[in-house]
């Protein structure tokens, strides 16, 4: 029942996009789409190494200088060969970014990241506030790219631990190619996070870093 | 010698106004006697004709015949006296210098200086916008006199000029009332009155003044000689998209490598490689494609300047048209005269 309803919505959306006048679409400021996600996750040491893939959805809205992006991805991570990890886990990651254009190619970005791992104790669930800068550049008609860098603040982990002021960094690369006169948008998004988490204090202090590289390839409908 | 001069006078003097014929029979006989060099007979017959009832034209011809005959008989004073009567009767009378003997011309010129007349009164036909032009009036006065020029025919006479003049006079009349408004349409008369003591002479010329609307100017759609330039231009193909994609991808991969924690082993470049590779592929395609038109800043500024100039000019035209709609176009045309001066 759910699958058929989803198919119905998809057909309705496709029809809407196809019959919607192109001139009306020229002022599009919003998009929604699906993504194929694959990533690389490491924690504590090189022995805890996972790779996985999954799917996700994304949405964006732009109004004048303000842009808001959100994505929800679900990745099933499996231990790589040679890893000491034996159990796969599923990570569900929510990313929200609010962007404000400053000047030239530069925009400021703030947002949140929240990643939950299941089973709960196979990997760390993380929540943090992000702030950074994005540089966007149009490569050509309907082709845009962006490079972003930022820091994560106030990181919280399911297993506890802290991060120094500059210990949580992220780097991103994204691209978007418009198709069908801007009605469809092919997107690619790379997101790298390095969180220098530590646990304990004093002589018992231990470095338990977390690192994730995530690639999202998606197709969005713009309207 | 005397006969030669008389013969020359006969040959060179124009026959009196061929268009209009002498009516009086006695005068015609006198003219015939003059033509046959019978000056005494011509004098007797002309004097006889003077005592008869003559119209203005015949009377002027009678005096002119007397003047020519006296000139032929070398009676210059009498010739001058006769020419004075001719001039008083026909102030506009002119002798053709190419067909008239110098002796006759001399007598005529002397006669002109001894009578007060206003001659050759002319009003130029003209069109102009009320308040921005004028009507040219020309005349000549044969003696130094107080000359007053007026326009009559309206509600009140309009004095154009009052001065002492002699010889040719050129005046300009702006065709305005004392209030500054253009004179109403209608028929007017230019009256020139010359006075020396008790002696006076006036000449007149009727004119017709008509009014019309002043033509307005059309608004401009473009400035002559200046065309709008295209506001976009297609730049030449450039490797810049590919280069930038390479740089951005390189930064992402290098950044990944730099930020990776050493404790977690070598970083995975698979994800960055996929996205960076896609970006470079997009950059390569864009590089090969025809570049999109880019705004041509210089042309845009030029067009803006042109539009501003055009708008300014049209504003001026609109203001000018507003002024023109309040203006009156005057046409002044001289009408045929009904009579001479007195």
Kindly report the oligomeric state of this protein.
Answer: heterodimer
The biggest beta sheet of chain B is recorded as:
7 strands, antiparallel
CATH superfamily annotation of chain A: OPCA outer membrane adhesin/invasin
N-to-C order of helices and strands of chain A = HHEEEEEEEEEEE
**Tally of helical runs of chain B:** 9
Could you list the spans of chain A in which at least 5 consecutive residues all have pLDDT below 50? 13-28
**Main β-sheet of chain A, in a few words?**
10 strands, antiparallel, barrel
Give a description of the structure.
The complex is a heterodimer of chains A (223) and B (342). By secondary structure, chain A is mainly β. Chain A has one domain: OPCA outer membrane adhesin/invasin (Lipocalin, Beta Barrel). Helix content of chain A is 10%, strand content 69%. The model of chain B is unreliable at 1-18 (pLDDT under 50). Chain B has helices at 2-12, 25-35, 39-51, 56-72, 76-89, 102-114, 240-259, 270-288, 297-325, and strands at 118-123, 126-129, 135-152, 158-173, 186-196, 199-213, 232-233, 294-295, 328-334. Chain B is built from nine helices and nine strands. In chain B, strands 1, 2, 3, 4, 5, 6 and 9 form a seven-stranded antiparallel sheet that branches. A two-stranded antiparallel ribbon of chain B has the order 7-8. The two termini of chain B are 39 Å apart. Chain B is α+β, with helices and mostly antiparallel strands and 342 residues long. Chain B is rod-shaped and about 150 Å long. At the A-B interface, strand 1, strand 2, strand 6, strand 7 and strand 8 of A face helix 7 and helix 8 of B.
Question: How would you briefly describe this protein structure?
Answer:
The complex is a heterodimer of chains A (223) and B (342). Chain A has 223 residues and is mainly β. Chain A is 10% helix and 69% strand.
